[in-house]
Amino acid sequence: MFDRFDVTLTWTKPPGTTQYELQNVPFNGDGPAVDIIRDVETSFTLPAPPAWYGLLPDMTYFWRVRTTAATGTPTEADWSAWGSWNYRTPKAASDTVSPASPATGSTVSSLTPALTWANSNPAVFYYEVQVSKDRSFNTDPATATAMVYGALVHGGATLPANTYAIPAAFPLERGVSYCWRVRPRVQGDGAPLAWPGPWTFQAP
């Protein structure tokens, strides 16, 4: 386990190496992967956000490297056997997430408002979001009393960052109080986090 979300992978190269192939794959293929072929090197850095939105928290990653001495385009027979290793990414925390907009307890101006949050850990970019007038966010069809909006959000791909908008096809109920909450998404062989909040706002 390391404490950063930018990872430098290093290896040794046989004499005469001209190219290498590097693969970096999350547990069970559950997330972004890397497969590159480059001229001879002995290290490669997987950058943290915002340079690359790639590594997810609390998950095992498997990486491997093979080399070739070919001077042109290598055939499969030109490659060495793979050298393989693994590492695990740091855990995330729910208590680094806080609401940004709307302000807690405020009234929004639309039935399809955009909800935005902040995270003091800039390496986390993938989130689970829930919104409901039911403070327990019960999703059991047999006992649920209200709709629960749920989404997985790539916070680095929304504008502004870390935003979820209530869909136009399912607007809020006018004059109703709503709760919402956000937690970093943990998947693969990681353990889901507790939900923070919830936070509240009023529909117009």
Under CATH at level 1, the class of the largest domain stands as Mainly Beta
The CATH level-2 architecture of the largest domain is identified as: Sandwich
Q: Radius of gyration over alpha carbons? A: 22 Å
Distance between the termini: 47 Å
CATH superfamily of the largest domain: Immunoglobulins
Q: For the report, how would you describe the main beta sheet?
A: 4 strands, antiparallel
The overall pLDDT, averaged over residues, is: 96
Specify the structural class. Answer: mainly beta
CATH topology of the largest domain: Immunoglobulin-like
Please list the strands of the largest sheet in the order they lie side by side.
3-2-5-6
How would you describe this structure to a colleague?
The chain has strands at 7-10, 19-26, 34-39, 43-46, 60-68, 83-88, 97-101, 114-119, 126-132, 148-154, 163-165, 177-184, 199-202. With 204 residues, the protein is mostly beta strands. The chain has two domains: 7-88, Immunoglobulin-like; 94-202, Immunoglobulins (Immunoglobulin-like). The chain starts with 6 loop residues before the first strand and ends with a strand. The mean pLDDT is 96.
How is this structure best summarized?
The protein is mostly beta strands and about 200 residues long. It is about 0% helix and about 40% strand.
Question: Which structural traits does this protein have?
Answer:
single chain; 204 residues; mainly beta; Immunoglobulin-like; four-stranded antiparallel β-sheet; 38% strand
SSE topology sketch:
Blueprint lengths: L6 E4 L8 E8 L7 E6 L3 E4 L13 E9 L14 E6 L8 E5 L12 E6 L6 E7 L15 E7 L8 E3 L11 E8 L14 E4 L2
